[in-house]
Amino acid sequence: MKSPYILSISDPRASITTVGGKGASLARMARAGLAIPGGFYLSTEAYQGFVAANGLQPHILAALEQVDAEEPGTLEEASQQIRQLFSRGQIPPDIADAIVQAYVALPGEDPAVAVRSSATAEDLPDASFAGQQETYLNIIGPDAVLEATKKCWASLWTARAIGYRMRQGIPSEGMALAVVVQLLVPAEAAGILFTANPMNGRRDQAVISAGWGLGDAVVGGLVTPDSLTLDKATGRVLERQTADKQVMTVRTDGGTEERSVPESLRRAPVLSDEAAGQLTHLAVKIEDLYGIPMDIEWALAEGQFSIVQARPITALPVPEPPAPTEWKLPKHSYIAMRNNIIELMAEPLTPLFGTLGRSAVNASMGRQMASFFGRPGVAPEELVVTVNEYAYYNGSLSPGQMAWIFLDSVGIMKRMFTGAVERWVDVGRPRYVATVERWQAKRWREFSATELLSAVRELSEAAIDAYMALVSGVIPAAWITEALFTIAYDKLIKRRDDPTAPTYLLGFDSAPIRAEKSLYDLAEWVRARGGLAIYLNNTPAPQLATQLENGQTPPGVDADDWLEWQRRFRGHLQRYGHTIYNLDFANPVPADDPAPLLDT
């Protein structure tokens, strides 16, 4: 009689409900005849049986009631409470017997296996749970498999997994976790392959990350891997970056550890062009099976590739369109300029900003122009236009509009500068801050699409109104007074060896200067901590951003230094991380994507 808890690696009953996202994906590939290591699944029913037999569910829910997803301390406390419950729990005899029987039926005596978690809410196309549950490699013997199984079950409740599910609005009630037990591939090399280029979104390219040994060091961000970009159709290597690979994950007696890569292999390519092409062809078959770009974990042993995991890529950029060959203006005799606020829209506008943001800019600028000119209709109806999706100022004025501006130039200047500071200090900026704080206080993750649209419109209009209040009076007044000061200083005060006039205008306290000083102070603090400084200098920024999120202390770095660096860097992001470098709000600020800031 078959156990209800055990499913074979290609079992047609394997689904997200029965074996979780990872298990369902492996089963799908196994049924397609792809190179998947043998093994079995321990179903979600076994997890539910363990939880019920030990009476854990009420205690789990009680611990979660105290959690605030934005407070890491509460997440850690709840996670520790729940994982202690699992550690003390006993696997019911019928479930334990099923696991042992399935394990001893694998080829070989006490074979080494990988024991992987597979949750019912992971590896979905719209959410990435990568790295949030545990995997245990080189597990040998029935008792070790049982212990690793309990640890996998408990990893459903890591602080990171709890927080991510809460932020994604995924309820904890009914959550379950399956376990994948597979023969361990004695990998000489391993890594990740993306069937679309994650940097530019190109679907015709594959990108491989490759390191020596088992895959943990690459997947966990502990080593800078080789990087290869290939043409998917032909498997031809387009670009190769061979890294100095200092760390590798290797097998030990009943486990794994990180060791230094032998000197002869550190700067040696992990994959030949031919091997990389073979791996890419295998990956294309997987992508064809799913019909979407995939994130694939692979291992290489004795010249043969095995696939240990495949999931949809959840955050892929839109491919860059071909460069335009024609630049057609909206009409003849048209003036389009790129200056001032347009310089903060350096790239083609995203559809979202082109629809919402540009209309907010035009509405705000239109109100300002009507106020300064004394009546509407003097400025163009659309002050910001697009040509090939790039933003431009519309500088086209009719003869009548130009005549009105010339005749009323004194009145326009008076209206611009009268009350300029008050428009910014007392109206524009306070209104913007109040609008942001009001929306921040709301539970925006629970908003409907209509509510989100209203929020974006109101925030966009408040931001542009505040900006226009600044640039329409305060900044021009500053330019004029600076010019007058320079003329007076040069004509009446300056001697031959005296500094130039701008010298006296430098160094005043401002938000940009405070942000730069905060970053400088953080860099100075890091330089005094050898292991941390070496790691930050030698690790690519995207990998650092991932490491910052998962919180694991890298090898060679003092744990206290790592925690303190995380605290200081997050403090900098909280204070200055919403500085914009591109007005298009579809582009992330440092608080959303710290990788560019980490590059500094």
Q: Which secondary structure elements does this structure contain, and how are they paired or packed?
A:
Blueprint: E1 6-8, H1 16-31, E2 39-42, H2 44-53, H3 57-64, H4 72-88, H5 93-104, E3 112-119, E4 135-140, H6 142-154, H7 159-168, E5 177-183, E6 189-194, E7 205-212, H8 216-219, E8 226-231, E9 237-241, E10 247-252, E11 255-260, H9 263-266, H10 273-290, E12 294-301, E13 304-312, E14 336-337, H11 351-373, E15 384-387, E16 390-394, H12 399-407, H13 409-417, H14 420-440, H15 449-493, H16 511-527, H17 530-538, H18 541-550, H19 559-576, H20 595-598
Antiparallel strand pairs: 1-2, 2-5, 3-4, 3-5, 6-7, 6-12, 7-8, 8-9, 10-11, 12-13, 14-16, 15-16
Task: Describe the structure in your own words.
With 600 residues, this protein is an alpha+beta fold. It has four domains: 6-183, 2-Layer Sandwich (Dna Ligase, domain 1); 189-312, ATP-grasp fold, B domain (D-amino Acid Aminotransferase, Chain A, domain 1), CATH 3.30.470.20; 336-496, no CATH class; 507-598, no CATH class. The protein has 20 helices and 16 strands. The chain has helices at 16-31, 44-53, 57-64, 72-88, 93-104, 142-154, 159-168, 216-219, 263-266, 273-290, 351-373, 399-407, 409-417, 420-440, 449-493, 511-527, 530-538, 541-550, 559-576, 595-598, and strands at residues 6-8, 39-42, 112-119, 135-140, 177-183, 189-194, 205-212, 226-231, 237-241, 247-252, 255-260, 294-301, 304-312, 336-337, 384-387, 390-394. The strands form four sheets. The chain has a six-stranded antiparallel sheet. The protein has a five-stranded antiparallel sheet with strand order 1-2-5-3-4. A three-stranded antiparallel sheet has the order 14-16-15, with helices on one face. A hairpin with a 5-residue loop joins strand 8 (226-231) and strand 9 (237-241). Helix 11 (351-373) crosses helix 15 and helix 14 packs antiparallel against helix 15. The longest helix is centred in the C-terminal third of the chain and has 45 residues, at 449-493. It starts with 5 loop residues before the first strand and ends with a helix.
